[in-house]
Amino acid sequence: MQRKTNSPAGTSDLERCALLSALRRRGLAPREGTESGSVTVEFGYRMVTVRLTDDGWTRAVSGQPGSSAIVARRGHEEDLARQLARELLDRLP
Predict the structure, then answer these.
(1) pLDDT tens digit sequence for 1-30
(2) What is the Cα–Cα distance from 57 to 81, expressed in whole angstroms?
């Protein structure tokens, strides 16, 4: 039996799990971040944390405390994982 959920929390969990899975398929070891709805992934000395908001996946802006920028829309977890893997691994995954 297929279960549908219309709750924002259920959708957020699904999107977060989709990003975690997409990153794992690219050989990375992501983990849930310290903030609710965030995902952290690191490789070597590089580390990236993204957070799921109503507007999409956001990331802190370097050099501007308290500022964040949208890096991907909701539902585009595969593209975001590809982008993060490319940045962390310094190659095309």
Answers:
(1) 444 434 455 678 899 999 999 999 999 999
(2) 11
